[in-house]
């Protein structure tokens, strides 16, 4: 088996579920997530790219997923739009789980519906930062954006999420450490 084929096989076997989960959180649809992941894998490996490790391949595919998702959002924005559904209607569409699984499922469905109200870039930034736990600098590197741009998308996204879900808890807000110089001078 050629080198890239071995890497692809190991990537799908070891990290396929995580990559699919990432695509699903972004798209909100099983079918779209499968298509997005497949497209990202094809884009990554169509030129027999020499990726040295599964970790490098995963990072490349994750970026291809994010880029593909944002590109799909751009293409969709150029098409005529249907009136957006409200959060209850979105929740009803995604509520395929029987109500016996407790409040955590309800919270997850509410968060998922709220994430679907964000723009593609805001959603990608919020998912990478708050659900995947990446630092802002890594989110910026993954999406190919400036850190200030990522912070802006995060800020706007969190404001929109809190408008829909006032009790949303996004742990681990990144702060900037300020080092005071001796004598109080900056």
Structure description:
With 186 residues, this protein is mostly helical. Helix 1 runs antiparallel to helix 2, helix 1 crosses helix 3 and helix 2 packs across helix 3.
Q: What average pLDDT do the residues reach?
A: 77
In whole angstroms, how far apart are the ends?
A: 59 Å
Query: What's the helix-strand series?
Result: HHHHHHHH
User: What is the count of DSSP helices, taking H or I runs of 4+ residues?
Assistant: 8
Query: Low-confidence segments, ≥5 residues, pLDDT <50?
Result: 95-101, 172-181
- Structural class per helix/strand content? mainly alpha
Name the beta content range.
under 5%
Shape type: globular
Report the biggest beta sheet as strand number plus sense, adding barrel if it closes.
none
- The helix content, as a percent range, equals 55-70%
How many extended strands? 0
- Give Rg in angstroms: 19 Å
Task: Fill in the keyword field for this structure.
globular, 67% helix, mainly alpha, 186 residues
Characterize this entry briefly.
With 186 residues, the chain is mainly alpha-helical. The protein has eight helices and no strands.
Show the helix and strand layout.
Blueprint: H1 3-27, H2 30-45, H3 54-78, H4 87-94, H5 103-115, H6 120-131, H7 136-143, H8 147-164
């Amino acid at each position: 088996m050629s080198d890239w084929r071995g890497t692809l096989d190991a990537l799908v076997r070891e990290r396929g579920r995580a990559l699919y989960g990432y695509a699903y959180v972004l798209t909100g649809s099983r079918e779209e997530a499968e298509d997005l992941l497949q497209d990202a894998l094809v884009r990554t490996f169509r030129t027999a790219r020499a990726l040295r490790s599964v970790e490098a391949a995963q990072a490349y595919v994750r970026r291809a997923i994010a880029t593909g998702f944002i590109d799909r959002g751009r293409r969709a924005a150029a098409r005529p739009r249907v009136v957006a559904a409200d959060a209850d209607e979105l929740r009803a569409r995604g509520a395929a789980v029987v109500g016996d699984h407790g409040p955590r499922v309800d919270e997850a469905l509410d968060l998922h519906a709220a994430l679907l109200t964000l723009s593609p870039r805001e959603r990608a930034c919020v998912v990478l930062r708050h659900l995947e736990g990446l630092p802002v600098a890594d989110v910026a590197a993954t999406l190919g954006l400036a850190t200030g741009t990522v912070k802006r998308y995060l800020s706007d996204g969190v404001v929109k999420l809190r408008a829909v879900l006032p009790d949303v808890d996004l742990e681990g807000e990144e702060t900037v450490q300020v080092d005071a110089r001796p004598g109080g001078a900056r």
